[in-house]
C-alpha cells in the first residue's frame, strides 16, 4: 500500500531540498581554474557534486581518469574541445559530455575568452579533492607537485601521458 503525501511517514523519508544562489557558492582556485561549488556531498547526501568551472583560454586539465566518480559537463559559454576515446572534438555551447569512471578524458578551452562549464560528479567527493588542491596552490611559491600527485592518488584521480 502506498503512502499519501500528507502521511507523516512519507514526510520523514523525504530529503530536504537545497537552493544555492551564485553568490552562495564556495569559490576555489586550483590548476588555473576557478570552481564555484553549488552543491556538494553535504547538500546531496553524498550523491553528487555540482559546480561551475571557469576556464581561461588555452587551459584545461591533462588527460586523466577517475576511479571513484562519473563526470558530466554542460558547456555554458565559450569554445571547448573534449578528449574522448583518444580523439579531441570541439563541442558547441549547450552540449553535454559524459565521462564514466575509468574513461580517460580531458577538456580544453580553445576559445579566446574565459569559458564556463557546469560540471557534475557522482558520487560526491570531488569538492574535497579540489579544496585540498586549492590549499596547495595557495601556498606561497606555488604548489608542491608531489603533494598534488598525492592528493590526486588519495582521491582516485590519475593523470596519463
* Helix coverage percent: 10-25%
SSE run? HEEHEEEEEEEEHHE
| Helix vs. strand class | alpha+beta
The overall average pLDDT, rounded, is 92
Q: Uncertain segments of ≥5 residues (pLDDT<50)?
A: 1-13
Structure description:
Helix 3 runs antiparallel to helix 4. The chain has a single domain, classed as Jelly Rolls (Sandwich), CATH 2.60.120. The chain has helices at residues 8-13, 41-44, 126-137, 145-154; strands spanning 26-30, 33-39, 49-55, 64-66, 70-77, 80-84, 87-91, 96-99, 105-109, 115-122, 157-159. The chain is built from four helices and eleven strands. Helix content is 20%, strand content 37%. The radius of gyration is 18 Å and the shape is globular. It is α+β, with helices and mostly antiparallel strands.
